[in-house]
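Marked as duplicate of an earlier ticket. Keeping the data here for the record.
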Amino acid sequence: MNNILVANSSLRANKRFSMLDAFFFALMSGAGEGYFVAFALELGIDPLQAGLLGTVPLFVGGVFQLFTPTLLARLTSYRKFIYISASLQALSFFPLVLCSYFNYVNFYLFLLINSIYWVFAFGVGQAWNALISGLIPSEERVGFFSTRNLLTYIGMFLGVIASGVGLEYGRLNGIAVSTFGIVFFVCMLARLASAFFLRCHTEPLAIETKLDSKNLINFVKAFSHNSMGKTLLFNLAFKIAIYISAPFFVPFMLKELKLSYVSFMVIISASIVGKITISKNLSRIANKTSLFKIFLYSCIGICFVPVAWTLDKHVVYLFFMEVFSGVCWGSFEYSLFLIILNNIPRESQPRYMSVYNFSSAIAIIIGSLIGGLIFSSVSIGGNIYIIIFVISTVTRMCSLLLFPIDIKFPKIHLPVMTRPLSIRPNQGTVDRHVILKDHDM
């Protein structure tokens, strides 16, 4: 009886610590990530370099996470690894605080700082999955993640709002750069608080160290000729087309449209609203229609987002466009996660997600470089942003020729356990599929 009471008390404590970790992490993400590029623009970095600052570090982080299964297999404490990684991610804000204080700008330094940030952001994922697997019983996980994700969305929303209001105050009073320093310092404290609550988790009695050890090349070959291989190929082409224009949405808003930070904040938060709205209804919608339609229509919707930005410059219009974008991205991620759950054996899912994330990282760097080349070299008449947005829309539509129409879609659509990883302008929150083992406490 005493053991049961101790176990229940430990479970309640771990849930509470995880909720607190989620909230402070979300504050950091909402207040900081959405404004990295804005900070560089405020310091005078040109729009091309600023755009690359928003994407190239994602490639670096995506490459790093490909090797985390090997690293995790050598660990004896996931909790310690997660705590150290989260703390180092928090400290990556400190150089930005110093740059703000000294009004110092250097593209390559910013590139390094942001890359370090994303290396630790991506690297902690699988270790966190393994830790939670040993702490939360399987029968409580759906409810746990539903509550935790809602708290994360709220934290991100509050972070975006607080930063936008604070930065607009700083801009109006001629202290915008200094205000960025304050924002980033608060972000650092929020992530350190998150790391503290991660450290408060108990260590699982049994640590899962048996990872898919199949050679990566052989693993990719195993899926190269089936529908899941086609899904990877489609993801690569689709994401390349997306990231032709993705780096330039923030420079377009702040430099071309000259939006205030309040308007910028409203537009970023709109995609979060769209993501939250659709995420609560996707299971019901999928059961009434079909997952195939959700996947296809969300891809088509994402295709037309860039060109839609060229039609009107009013903030109200852009707000609803971002809500639409959030709905499309939420639907895309939900259907894709269910496809993976249905077509990939459970023991191979972590490795497949690593390959999927790596292919996304490759797409980010290829698409960003194509977009950067267009931005820097196209000399034909017209607004360069509009040209890039139209090209991105056309290439997104062309990538649909690789759409995996023969993929196996599940007939029953259960809630999907995800973890919000970051926030990106024009996409909303970026969620990751949480793959948990079946052992309980």
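See parent ticket for discussion. The first strand starts at residue 418 and ends at 424.
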